[in-house]
Each structure stands twice: as structure tokens, then as C-alpha cells.
Write a structure and sequence with these properties.
The protein folds into 2 domains: 38-163, Peroxidase, domain 1; 170-298, Peroxidase, domain 2, CATH 1.10.420.10. It is 49% helix and 2% strand. It has 14 helices and 2 strands. Strands 1-2 form a two-stranded antiparallel sheet. Helix 3 crosses helix 5 and helix 13 packs across helix 14. The radius of gyration is 20 Å and the shape is globular. Mean pLDDT is 94; it is low at 15-19.
Length: 319
């Protein structure tokens, strides 16, 4: 017979999941329809300005949202600078010297504060900015539920434990996404974000030197730029054809074994996700639809709502 402690643990897990779902249900697309009517236009204007200046910034903003949501929910904790009370997420392994776009969110926040002081959270701004970045670069749109509040703390340790690494194999990736309530389909669809943006030599070096599931000519080309030592910060496109256009070439590259990261190629390496990669490689509409659905799910991971958290006046620090 199961012990009482087992049932207590099970009850606690179910209760936690129920609370999380309830919080997510409180998000509404019209949350600021009265309190900040021009919010969507302000965010779109800010993203348009930033991406016109540097198209790569779109991938950076999308990545910032993803790395925020995977660490204790979509609460803008990644935007917090370190304080005497905590070491934040910006120096975690996945973010240190690579996460960027903070200034773009800060600029948009300043515009929003001028229009609607003390009303809109940094977490909501980041969620909208990620959507608008994808749309600007030619990708799908989706409805963004709003009403998140901002965290008052951040944790480098939690970031190190939660954000998937380029070294992950397929089973680890699936478990990592499952921990966030995301399915195998979500994993493959959301990985399509790598159809835009760049990656550093230090991150793709293991794949091009140690792995055999990579096109030989492509590996040789990358090795000519990324030596076994040095050039750690050298950048190469994740999608070598159209790095600043949101399309489905990432999946075509997976089929041809021409991607930068070990973790990406794991999605098409004789495993359970091969069929999804094949589907998205030949059906852009299916990819766009599933990516949009996956982003809606991801952006609703454990939001702070109601009286939890706060509305930060400055995204980099608590009030």
C-alpha cells in the first residue's frame, strides 16, 4: 500500500499544476484594452525600429523570451541585474556573453511608461516583442495573452538547471521540454526558432569536430572558420541560407545534416522526432501553425498574476 507521504506529494504536485493552469487562464488578449490602449502599437513600433537597425535583434528578442519562460515561468526574471540579494540569470551558462536585446526592451518599456505609467509589466512587453519580432521577419503571428506580472527575484542556478544546452541529446531535450509542460511536437516546432539568428563558435565546435551526423563538406567549411581552439565568439548563421528570414529552411537543413548545433541535429537522427522534422521541411504552413501554437503554450508557463510579483518601473531592477 502506498504511504501517506506519497499521497501528500502527489496532492502537492496536482495542486501546484492546478494553480499554474489557473494563473495562465487569467491571461487575456484584452487585458490592457482600457488601461493602456496603445500598448500593442507602441511595442510594434519599438520592435520595428530595432529590427530595421539590426535584423539579428529579432532572434535575440525571441531567445530572450524563451530563456525567460524556461526559468520559473514567463516573469521577466532574465531582465533583472544582479543585486546584493541574488545573482541573476544573465550570467548563467546559456546567457553569459550571449543574451542580448535588453536595451530594446528597456527602450520599449520607457515608451510604455510615458503612455501608461506603472501599468504594463516587463514580462508582457517581452512576450509581445517576441511575437512582433517573428512577424517582422516573415514568420507567423499568434494571440498573446496578457496580464503577467514581474518577478522580484532571479536565480542563476535555476537558469543553469532549466535552459536546454547545445550538448543535449534527444531524450534530454524531450524531458527538458516536458518539465515545462511542453510536448514532443512543441519541442520540434519551437526549435524552428533556429531558422533565424547566429551562434558562437564555442557552442557549435563540438558538433563540427566530434559528431559524425553532419555533412562532411559543411563541417569542413565551418572548421575553416572555427578552429579547435580560439575564435570562441565567431558567429555563424543557424540557418546558413536565410538567417534573418523566418522560414522552414532550418528543417530542410536538418534533413541534409547541415545545422550548427548537436542538439538541433538530434531532432533528425533516427529518433522519434524525425517524422515531424520531415513534415515541417516540406510543409511551411504546418510548421508556422505548430510554432504559433507552441509559442502560445510557452508564453503561458507559470505566469505571475493577480497580486503576485509586481509591475516593475525599470525592467532591470525591482521597485
Amino acid at each position: 500500500m502506498a504511504s501517506t507521504s506519497y499521497f501528500l506529494l502527489l496532492f502537492a504536485l496536482v495542486a501546484a499544476a492546478t494553480v499554474s493552469e489557473a494563473n495562465a487562464a487569467q491571461l487575456r488578449t484584452d487585458f490592457y484594452s482600457c488601461s493602456c490602449r496603445n500598448l500593442l502599437a507602441i511595442v510594434k513600433t519599438g520592435i520595428t525600429k530595432a529590427l530595421q537597425k539590426e535584423a539579428r535583434m529579432g532572434a535575440s528578442i525571441l531567445r530572450l523570451h524563451f530563456h525567460d519562460c524556461f526559468v520559473n515561468g514567463c516573469d521577466a526574471s532574465i531582465l533583472l541585474d544582479d543585486t546584493s540579494r541574488f545573482i541573476g540569470e544573465q550570467t548563467a551558462a546559456a546567457n553569459n556573453n550571449s543574451a542580448r536585446g535588453f536595451n530594446v526592451i528597456d527602450d520599449i518599456k520607457a515608451m510604455v511608461e510615458k503612455e501608461c505609467p506603472g501599468v504594463v509589466s516587463c514580462a508582457d512587453i517581452l512576450a509581445l516583442a517576441a511575437r512582433d519580432s517573428v512577424v517582422y521577419l516573415g514568420g507567423p503571428s499568434w494571440e498573446v495573452g496578457l496580464g503577467r506580472r514581474d518577478s522580484t527575484t532571479a536565480s542563476r542556478l535555476d537558469a543553469n538547471n532549466s535552459i536546454p544546452a547545445p550538448s543535449f541529446n534527444l531524450s534530454t531535450l524531450k524531458q527538458n521540454f516536458a518539465n515545462q509542460g511542453l510536448s514532443e511536437k512543441d519541442l520540434v516546432a519551437l526549435s524552428g526558432a533556429h531558422t533565424i539568428g547566429l551562434s558562437q563558435c564555442r557552442l557549435f565546435r563540438p558538433h563540427i569536430y566530434n559528431d559524425t551526423n553532419i555533412d562532411a563538406s559543411y563541417a569542413k567549411f565551418l572548421q575553416s572558420k572555427c578552429p579547435r581552439t580560439g575564435n570562441d565568439k565567431l558567429l555563424e548563421p543557424l540557418d546558413h541560407q536565410t538567417p534573418f528570414h523566418f522560414d522552414n529552411l532550418y528543417y530542410k537543413n536538418l534533413v541534409q545534416k547541415k545545422v550548427l548545433l548537436h542538439s538541433d541535429q538530434e531532432l533528425y537522427n533516427g529518433g522519434s522526432t524525425d517524422h515531424l522534422v520531415g513534415k515541417y521541411a516540406t510543409d511551411r504552413v504546418a510548421f508556422f501553425n505548430d510554432f504559433a501554437k507552441g509559442m502560445v503554450k510557452m508564453s503561458r508557463i507559470k505566469p505571475l498574476t493577480g497580486k503576485k510579483g509586481e509591475i516593475r518601473l525599470n525592467c532591470a531592477k525591482v521597485n
